[in-house]
Structures are given as C-alpha cells and as structure tokens.
Design goal:
heterodimer, A: mainly beta, six-stranded mixed beta sheet, five-stranded antiparallel beta sheet, 11 strands, about 0% helix, about 60% strand, globular, B: mainly beta, seven-stranded mixed beta sheet, four-stranded antiparallel beta sheet
Amino acid sequence: GIQVEQSPPDLILQEGANSTLRCNFSDSVNNLQWFHQNPWGQLINLFYIPSGTKQNGRLSATTVATERYSLLYISSSQTTDSGVYFCAVHYGQNFVFGPGTRLSVLP
Amino acid sequence: DGGITQSPKYLFRKEGQNVTLSCEQNLNHDAMYWYRQDPGQGLRLIYYSQIVNDFQKGDIAEGYSVSREKKESFPLTVTSAQKNPTAFYLCASSLGQRARDTQYFGPGTRLTVL
C-alpha cells in the first residue's frame, strides 16, 4: 500500500511566527487534502489540493504531484492554530492519512 | 443546521462487553466512514459504506461490525473480539466516494475499556 509521511512530527512556535509542514507520499494519488484537528478532537478540512497552490487567509498549500509531496504554510500563527495537522491522500477507493504534525503555538 | 453527530462523547466499557457507537448525518451524503485514532497516530479506516445496505471492510475491521439500514445512520459496534478497543473513534461522511469528495467529520467518541 501507499506510505504517507509528515514532518516535522512536533512543532512549537511563538505566536506570530511562520511555519511549513510537509507531507510526502510514496505513490501517485488522485487527491490530497489537509485537515486540522483541534485540541478537542474535531477535524476540519482545510484544503482539497490534488496539485498546484491554494490560499485561504493565513494558510496556503502547495502540492507537487509529480514529486509526491505537499506543503502547508501557516503565516502569522495564532494560538488557535494549535492542534494536529493531517494530510490525507486518496488512493484506491479511500483516503489514507499521514501520522500528523502536532503544532503548539505559544502566546 | 447540517452536520454529523456522534454519541456518546465518552464511553466506558468493561472487558467482554459489546458497545455501539452512534453516527448520524443530515447532509444527505451517500458515503459514510468509521475511523480509529490512537494517541499520537493518524486515522485508520475501520469500515465504510457507499450506499444504504452496503458496506465494506477497511484496514482494521477485525472485532468491529456496522450496519447501514438508513442513509443518515451508520452505527459501529465494538465487539468483545476487539483486542484493544480503547481509542478515539471518528465518523465521517462525504457526498460520494470520488477523490474530489471532501470528508466531513463528527466530533468523535472516546472509548475506554476498564
């Protein structure tokens, strides 16, 4: 099956800092999505991004499908950005999730 | 307003007991999913259903069972055969099972076996 890796596993930032999260996958995929899981466990879809670049406020994402990776950029981080960020790739019939990057933004 | 609800939020069970986790959606989605999340790990697929009265095993189906008698509902039963059931369980739904169909998640049920 496909392997999905995320780095770094943990990230601690001061409020206002910028960060880049990475997702690597081992095979061609039909789609890639980024999710944020808040400290209470709720997952929210951030981006549907099979290729190219998208921006939504302080967040943006880039997927280079031919090189099998995606990047999530967080600018001017806020404490509410804390939580776990997952990438998920659509492979076969379903999504396969990476292990996540745990982000802690300190005030 | 539309969304996915899961109940209960917390569930405690004694070893050897079966328990059923509820998942309901009013988004008129055809596809529904159950995932398991262990501490510090990603989500793993337990079961999924594309339409009513049909469901398929995911990667870790052993010790679990599901039903899909109604479009809105996809309950998960954790049986006594599940060796290590303590985990966070997430239900999701999507319009279909196509790659472009976004998954929407419920708030989760945290199951603890005593």
